[in-house]
Amino acid sequence: MPAKPPTVPADQQSSVAAIRHLAERGYEATTAGDLADAVGMSRSTFFRRFGSKDDVIFADHDHALAQLADFLDATELQPGEALVEGTADVLRLLVRDPEAARLRFELMHERPALRDRELVITHRYERVFARYIRRVQQPATPDWVAPSLAASLVAVHNAALRDWLRERITDAPRAVTRDLHRLTALYERWLTAEGGRQRVLVAVYDASGSPDAVLGAVAAQLDREGR
User: Fold this and answer.
1) By residue range, what is the domain housing residue 226?
2) Which helix (H) or strand (E) holds 204?
3) Which pLDDT tens digit goes with each residue over 19-43?
4) Cα–Cα distance for residue pair 133/151, rounded to 1 Å
5) Are the C-beta atoms of residues 33 and 121 closer than 8 Å to each other?
6) Which pLDDT belongs to residue 28?
7) Rounded distance, CA 85 to CA 170, Å?
8) Within 10 A of 56 (CB to CB), how many other CB atoms are there?
9) Which of 33, 149, 197, 226 has an alpha carbon 20 to 30 Å from 124's alpha carbon atom?
10) pTM of the model
11) Residue 54 contacts by C-beta under 8 Å, 6 or more apart in sequence?
12) Integer CA distances (angstroms), 74 to 1, 13, 67, 77, 132, in order
């Protein structure tokens, strides 16, 4: 099923314009009032919607978090597929405007305070993922599974985003989808009932064969089953 492009509300369009203005005029030299003028808002409207010039840089993340939480609350996909699709949708939203994404990346790495704020955002994503995983995981799943998988989802997403920003990959959503499928496969036993079932291998062999030959045949069949 082809992925639907993320919606871009007016507030997110305004935040992109504000980020461009910050990059062009300089972070320190630009006031929140300057940003309000740049995006065509009154100062009161700007402060009500974004709060500060720091907040405007992370407005896309606020929207992505809300979108992710709504998706995971409503989805009927299998848990592993839901986690892949939800995470890939976050990345699609963040890279939908390449210029703004790169400007945001540069601004965050110029100011330590913004990097600290980025860590807070990361923990918010992890909490959304962990809450969903605990809701859908199989009975008797170890307590460490939800936080471990949640953190891994964010790590894989961030790695793909950084690779895209540094022009190591061109199609970030496709790359992250591939990597996320590999990740969720490692947790399948706790996400689906089928994943926790034991498989039985039935082998037919020549009774006159040597023990080494029999073991070799069984090993070859197990290798084929594991592919």
Assistant:
1) 198-227
2) none
3) 888 888 888 888 888 888 888 888 8
4) 12
5) no
6) 81
7) 19
8) 26
9) 33
10) 0.74
11) 113, 114, 117
12) 17, 26, 11, 9, 11
Neighbours of 175 (CB within 10 A): 20
Q: Do 202 and 187 lie in a common domain? A: no
Please list, residue by residue across 69-90, b when 16 or more beta carbons sit within 10 angstroms of its beta carbon and e when fewer do. Answer: bebbeebeeebbebbbbbbbbb
| DSSP tag of 7 | P
Measured CA to CA, the distance from residue 69 to residue 37 in angstroms comes to 32
Radius of gyration of the chain (CA): 23
Instruction: Give the DSSP per-residue string, 60-81.
Output: HHHHHHHHHHHHHHH--S-HHH
User: What's the CATH number where 146 sits?
Assistant: 1.10.357.10
Number of structural domains the chain divides into: 2
- Contact between 156 and 183 under an 8 Å Cβ cutoff? The reply is yes
**Spatial contact of 156 and 87, defined as CB atoms under 8 Å apart:** yes
